[in-house]
Amino acid sequence: MKTSNVAQACPLNKPNLYESPVLRNATGAAIRPGGLSVLKAALERFPFKRGARLLDVGCGMGASVALLRSRYDLRAIGMDLSRVLLSEGAKSVASLPLAQARAEALPVADGSLEGVICECVLSLVADSKQVLSEFHRALMPGGRFIMSDIYRRNPSDNKHALPCKNCFSGASDRERILGNLIDAGFSLHLWEDHSHLLRELAAKLIFMHGSMSAFWEQFAGESNGRQMEEAVRAMRPGYCLVVAEKT
Ligand SMILES: C[S@@+](CC[C@H](N)C(=O)[O-])C[C@H]1O[C@@H](n2cnc3c(N)ncnc32)[C@H](O)[C@@H]1O
């Protein structure tokens, strides 16, 4: 039986969605809708000064860390729970500074970072409010938080339970995401919708697997693929970019 150190999708004998090459065949090394494009758009509008210290939390294989270092000359490092993804990342770029750590307890000093990046991760953690206050602790005053994630555009749907834990099951709606940020001590610079990138990824997955339920079956089990597809459709998922500042 395959086991994983990441909070496991069900059932346990199926591969972990984010560690599996099946999803990465569609996304590439940046395991999210749009690849690196949303982060690049954010950095062009909200640039960091050269050499700024950034932490990419839930960095996966470190695709963003590599970009931040090589293209923007930032002192970026990445942390993730998954040993599998960290070692895949180290194989592709040997010198990437990646380490295993939980978003809930970052091994960095208070106020030590100019930026925190968090892409498609907040929807996976058990307590996003606690994680946001951890990011706030790690950032210096005026430090910037850049996140992108799945969000619910139909928050009132509660008829369709998602059978497995993933970015969709943990997704919040816009109001809640922004409310949690403000409560954690951030001020908002930008909320932007990039849902077309999620639609493009879904289209790619349908071309590759025949249908979304066929894709989901590989992770959720044969009997749950259809339920996943219907539940995801009912929540009307979108994809957002958020930029905020520690006040
Ligand atoms: C959808 S993938 C995104 C990976 C990366 N940010 C990217 O865009 O390529 C979600 C990542 O979050 C990580 N993750 C989930 N829960 C975490 C936690 N509590 N602390 C740290 N990383 C976590 C997973 O291991 C996985 O690499």
List the defining traits of the structure above.
about 250 residues, alpha/beta, Rossmann fold, 9 helices, 7 strands, about 20% strand, disordered N terminus, binds S-adenosylmethionine
Helix content: 25-40%
**Name of the CATH class:** Alpha Beta
Cofactors, ions, other ligands: S-adenosylmethionine
- What structural class do you assign from the helix and strand content? alpha/beta
The major pleated sheet works out as:
7 strands, mixed
Q: How are strands sequenced across the largest beta sheet?
A: 3-2-1-4-5-7-6
Report the mean per-residue pLDDT as an integer: 93
Tally of structural domains = 1
Report Rg: 17 Å
Number of strands: 7
Strand content: 15-25%
What is the chain-wise order of helices and strands? HHEHEHEEHEHEHHHE
User: Can you say what the CATH homologous superfamily is?
Assistant: Vaccinia Virus protein VP39
Low-confidence stretches: 1-8
Q: What CATH architecture label applies? A: 3-Layer(aba) Sandwich
- Shape field: globular
Total of helices: 9
First and last CA, distance:
47 Å
